[in-house]
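input
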Amino acid sequence: MVRKVIFVGLAVLASWGSRWPSACADASRSCGALAGARGLTGPRVLAGANGLKELGALAGANGLANSTRSAKADTLVFVWWNLQNLFDTVANSGPRDRDFLPDGPYRWDSKRYYAKLYAVGRGLAAAAGGRIPDAIGVCEVENADVLDDLERRWPPEWRLWRLHRDSPDERGIDVAVWYNPERLSVDSVTWIHPAQDYPTREAIWVRWITNHGDTLSWIWAHLPSQRAPAPSARAEAIRSIIEQAPKNLDGVVGDLNEGPNGPLGTYLRGIRMRHLPWPHYAGSFAYRGRLEALDGVWVREAANWRATTHVVPLGLSTSPRLGYQIRGCFEGLRYRGGASDHLPVCINVEVN
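output
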């Protein structure tokens, strides 16, 4: 029998539910895995990993259903999204945090903050195609308080648990992942800091076990920006992350900040990973009227998976004069009121 698994690449969420103790706050930056919980779900699996939480979520997605509407009932739905500087309005993440305050250059007040949360929540629901997602990955989120606020903006039937901890990134931005404990159980999870000489956001490696007994081992990452001076910065970062991660990696998804044909792609192909292109749209980020594939999905060539992927055109427009544009929250310092300047990325995976 062939079972389908759908991954959707994005970043966002919302909930209710109680917090779990943050027993993993001091977990090692260099791959301190929370292991050995095979077959268990919920707080017993991670013994209260920082930010692990049961949450509720947002119902009824209007708009983009795409392939998830026609998916079978046992299909898993994953989402990845870069949320473009989802900060709260409180000075609690260091000097760079001050840009996103009411008196900062972005004039980031409560009205703009809650408008962004609402836009992100609606975008996430649309990307999930009206279904309860089984996992969601996001990046450029400030802290657990922001994730809590996001979770409150989606429906109660989304009862997901969260994998997150504060990273040492100088901008104060993190990667977070939610999952559905009724469909997936966590075998182990690890936060991995690239072996670089400056603090940056950590990647999340997680191995899930499905209800059918299959395992899914993925890295969710936000690699250094293109402002990093060395052309090989992203390749070096992902090499460091993968070398620290447990073996038998199935895939990598995230904002890789580089297309598939640069040094990063050369490295990943060298370790027998395969890039998944998407039809219809060439990329997930608009620059000077063109779409660029800054977000990406790579899978192990020898994996027992057949995979395809596509982007979800939330806030995307095009014109003969300007080309492609994505209505994000800001364009430079100009407020535009959208959800994010990145598009969500969706991945369809079939397990033999």
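quick obs: The longest strand covers residues 76-86.
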